[in-house]
Amino acid sequence: MAEKIFHLTFDGAVDPPGTLQILEQLDRYGIKATFFVEGHRIAGHEDTLKDMIKAGHHLGNHSFNHPSFNTLTLEQCREEVRLCDEALVNALGLHTKLLRPPCGHLQEDQRKLFEEMGYEIYLWTISNKDWLGPNAAAVAQRTLDLAHDDKVIAVYHDFLETTAETLSIVLPQLLDRGYRFEPIPYPV
C-alpha cells in the first residue's frame, strides 16, 4: 500500500486571529503545514512567524501585495516576489524558494521566470473552495470528499473565520484515513 501524504497549505499568512487559531489546531494534532506569506502582512507579526518556523512549519512566498499575476507584466511579477522575499529575509533571515502565485494564476512565461529565479512553484491538488462557506461543516465535507489520492496538496485560507473549525473536523478524520501530514519540503 502506498504511503498517503497530505500537504496542508494556507494562503494569506499572517492574518491574526485566524492564523493563531489555525496554529492551535495544528499543534493539537502535532501537524506541520506550509503557510504562503503575503509580504505586506509580515510587519508587526515577526514573532508569530518566528514561532511558526520554530514549531516546524514552512513558509512560502505568496507575493507582496497579492495581485493577480494575470494583470501584471513580467517585471511587475518579479518585483512582487522579490519584495516578499526581501521582507521575509529582513524579518526572519528566511530566503524561501517555495512560491504560490496569488489565486493560482500563472502564465507560462511567468512560470519560466520564477523557475529561473530558483523557485519551486506549488499550486494545489484539491481546493475545498473554503471562501464559499457557508460554514465549517460544509468546507470540511468538501475536503473529505476530495481527499482520496495518495498525495494531496490542499489549500486553505487563514483569513476565514471558519478555517480553524474546519480543521478541527477534518484533521482527525484524515489521520484516521492514514494520511501523514508534512509541510511542503524546502528545495535544496
Describe the model:
With 188 residues, the chain is an alpha/beta fold. The protein has a single domain (4-181), classed as TIM Barrel, CATH 3.20.20.370. The chain has helices at residues 18-29, 46-54, 74-92, 108-116, 136-146, 163-176, and strands at 4-13, 34-37, 58-61, 98-99, 120-121, 126-127, 151-157, 179-181. α1 runs parallel beside α6 and α5 packs parallel to α6 (163-176). The longest helix is centred in the middle third of the chain and has 19 residues, at 74-92. It is globular.
Set out the fold topology.
Layout: E1 4-13, H1 18-29, E2 34-37, H2 46-54, E3 58-61, H3 74-92, E4 98-99, H4 108-116, E5 120-121, E6 126-127, H5 136-146, E7 151-157, H6 163-176, E8 179-181
Parallel strand pairs: 1-2, 1-7, 1-8, 2-3, 4-5, 6-7
Concise overview:
The chain has 188 residues and is α/β, with parallel strands linked by helices. Helices cover 39% and strands 18% of the residues. The chain has a single domain, classed as Glycoside hydrolase/deacetylase (TIM Barrel, Alpha-Beta Barrel).
Strand content: 15-25%
Could you give a short account of the major beta sheet? Answer: 6 strands, parallel
> What value does the average pLDDT take?
96
Number of separate strands: 8
Oligomer: single chain
**What Rg, in angstroms, do the CA atoms define?**
16 Å
The CATH architecture would be Alpha-Beta Barrel
Fraction in helix: 25-40%
Q: Pairing-aware structural class of the strands and helices?
A: alpha/beta
Q: Which class in CATH terms?
A: Alpha Beta
**CATH topology category name:** TIM Barrel
Measure the end-to-end span: 28 Å
Low-confidence stretches: none
Order of helices and strands: EHEHEHEHEEHEHE
- Total number of distinct structural domains: 1
Taken from the alpha-carbon principal axes, the silhouette is globular
- Structure annotation, total helices: 6
CATH-wise, what's the superfamily? Glycoside hydrolase/deacetylase
